[in-house]
Design the sequence.
């Protein structure tokens, strides 16, 4: 009987994760309790990031305040952290990549938790730099917001995934065994 290649297995796992995600979000819109749990999670993530940005900027001499999802400094620059700004989709994609690759469950959980922490820290740095750019170099704000910092965050997620595939997956996973057989 023919065995599937590791690449096909990962693509299949990603397809299943996307399908399950679509079902989850379809149920999310219809189920009051799931929807409220999800909304509360997004709210907590937004509060965490907004307050972290405030602390970072205040450490660097900015006088910043937060009002829910709004971060303002005394120079008149304010940012509203929308759903896309907090990196919710980036975090879900990252977790999906880790879950889709073969490895021991405890390794997946540990690396996903560490990766999510790193991504949130990168996002705090990104948003802090956006406020800096908005304060001192406003003409560059659109470019840095829409392109530079966004794709830098995506590159960070990609590098975390590469690190996962090359260093932290267990050597007994099906990827490694397939690679040994075909080398």
Sequence:
């Amino acid at each position: 009987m023919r065995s599937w290649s590791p690449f096909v297995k990962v693509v299949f796992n990603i397809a299943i994760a996307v399908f399950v995600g679509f079902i989850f979000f379809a149920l999310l819109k219809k189920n009051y309790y799931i929807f409220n749990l999800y909304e509360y999670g997004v709210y907590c993530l937004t509060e965490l990031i907004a307050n972290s940005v405030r602390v970072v900027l205040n450490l660097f001499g900015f006088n910043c305040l937060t009002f829910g999802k709004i971060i303002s400094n005394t120079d008149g620059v304010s940012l509203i952290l929308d759903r896309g700004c907090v990196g919710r989709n980036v975090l879900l994609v990252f977790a999906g990549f880790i879950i889709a690759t073969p490895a021991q469950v405890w390794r997946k959980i540990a690396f996903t938790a560490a990766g999510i922490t790193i991504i949130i820290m990168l996002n705090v740095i990104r948003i802090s730099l956006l406020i800096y750019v908005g304060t001192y170099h406003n003409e560059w704000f659109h470019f840095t917001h829409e392109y530079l910092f966004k794709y830098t965050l995506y590159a960070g997620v990609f590098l975390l995934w590469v690190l996962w595939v090359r260093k932290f997956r267990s050597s007994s996973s099906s990827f490694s065994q397939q690679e040994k057989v075909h080398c």
